[in-house]
Amino acid sequence: MAEKPTPIEEVLKNDTATNESSHPVMHTYESDLSLAMNTTDATVVQELLQTSKNREDAQEENQVLHQQRGWYTTGSIILILLALAALGYGVYYYQHLTVTVLKSPSVGVFQNGAPLITADGDSIQRIDELTKGTSIPENKPVLIPLVTDSTTLTPLDTERALQYMHINATEPFVATLSLVRLGLYNTDNSVSPFLLLSTDNPEIATKEFLIAEPQLLSMVSPILGIDTTNQATEVAPTFTSSYMYNLPVRILKSVDLDTHIETILLYYGYATDHTIVVATNPTILKAVYDTIIRQQ
């Protein structure tokens, strides 16, 4: 005959049955999520979602700012490189196209005679009077200053000096000359006028003289006292190249129709690299050259 359980065993049995019926053994994700949503406040969930959205927006904004910063940096580098290139080109342009100011070369120091004042009369007449006088020392080139007035004794500039001496030169010819001086040379009791010219650019001056050769005799014959109406002589058609005292010159000759003897009617040549002599007497070139060389 079976034994009846004791009161204590009955109580324990009842408690076990109650616990097993109130707590199921199986759990699912859906049940856990449902339980979490049921046990979580909706306000907290909303705050979590808003925080997540704010974080995402901040990340996108940072990415945009990073891209913009990269474009700004690249643009700045390009502008700096362009500025440096422009600066380098400016320096190159300035160094290669700017004309360097050079000091005009001196024609040397010569003995000066009495100045010719433009207001005192025509230059040709005054020169004719000086060539007939005895105030010019022998075998020494003497320069005659051409001045505006007797008070200030201001020298005439190149253009006005040529005009005063009735030398009608072209504008390019005048532009090549930096100084024009009138001189006298006394040899064997015969005084000969001559022109002493200075140029900063011998190459251009030589070209202008070659261009002016067909008119050069008519240009300088009045001031140099050359008679171009002499029927007893024939003037050569062109200048020819030659040497005087080892100096290159261009010579225009005339031929006596009776004796057929050639004589130098006019010549021009460089006494130094920047000094040009235009004269009729060959010894003037040597005298000018010797005077300048002694001063160097």
Polypeptide structure, described:
With 296 residues, the protein is of the alpha+beta class. The chain contains eight helices and eleven strands. A hairpin with a 2-residue loop joins strand 8 and strand 9. The N and C termini lie far apart (161 Å).
The radius of gyration over CA amounts to: 55 Å
Question: How much helix is in the residues?
Answer: 40-55%
Structural class by SSE content: alpha+beta
Query: What spatial form do the alpha-carbon principal axes imply?
Result: rod-shaped
Order of helices and strands: HHHEEHEEHHEEHEEEEEH
The tally of helices reads: 8
Low-pLDDT regions: none
Mean pLDDT: 82
Largest sheet: 9 strands, mixed
- Number of E-type strands: 11
**Beta-strand content estimate:** 15-25%
The termini sit apart by 161 Å
List the helices and strands and how they pair.
Layout: H1 7-22, H2 29-39, H3 42-97, E1 111-112, E2 116-117, H4 123-131, E3 142-144, E4 146-147, H5 158-164, H6 171-175, E5 177-187, E6 190-199, H7 202-224, E7 233-235, E8 240-244, E9 247-256, E10 262-270, E11 275-279, H8 282-294
Parallel strand pairs: 1-3, 2-4
Antiparallel strand pairs: 3-5, 5-6, 6-11, 7-9, 8-9, 9-10, 10-11
